Amino acid sequence: xxxxxxxxxxxxxxxxxxxxxxxxxxALAAPLLDYLxxxxxxxxxxNLTAVRDPHEMVGKHLLDSLAMHRYxxxxxxxxxxxxxxxxxxxxxxxxxxxxxxxxxxxxxxxxGKKARFMREALRQLGLKDARVAESRIEAFxxxxxxxxxxxxxxxxxxxxxxxxxxxxKPGGVLLAMKGVRPDEEIAALPEGWEVRAVEPMAVPGLAAxxxxxxxxxxxxx
Length: 221
Description:
Layout: H1 11-21, H2 29-46, H3 54-66, H4 73-77, E1 81-85, H5 93-99, E2 104-108, H6 112-125, E3 130-133, E4 146-152, H7 157-164, E5 168-178, H8 183-187, E6 193-200, E7 211-217
């Protein structure tokens, strides 16, 4: 696990181009690649993610996570709090923490090896505004503490709200990252919740469909 990882040449240029396409500073490539190298190194021993090729990781992990960055701008601007539910090795929470200084990120993950990796990543990257909560989502006892919660490829919209809706403060929103537009899941939302927006997201280098679904409590919008 401790052997250094040599990232392929050209990876930085690929990431910088993707960041520019997302209207993010290409200089952010450096800390993002530090995170990617650490993830690739731990992945050799602990199997944290099925994606192993660094080029794939740039698109499917980093840029896919960062495609939602503008949705947390308002939260970051006021030093608000985001809970990333079922974050795995820190996606999208760690990339968002890197590119959005001031955003307070809690990485909620029940898997011990993934939680250990994230603690080490936060330490090495110096991300003082992010922390790890090693917990099942439904057992995470910080009710009404978050301006936003997010989840990436975690579960259906109704299940995400069932597990993590208690974490949202009044006026808070779920920022759910989805593939194809999830109309069936939207139709099955539990009582008291409403969709605020369903917007397509473009991920540089990925042809797959992506949508951001914004959900809040009915009457709070």
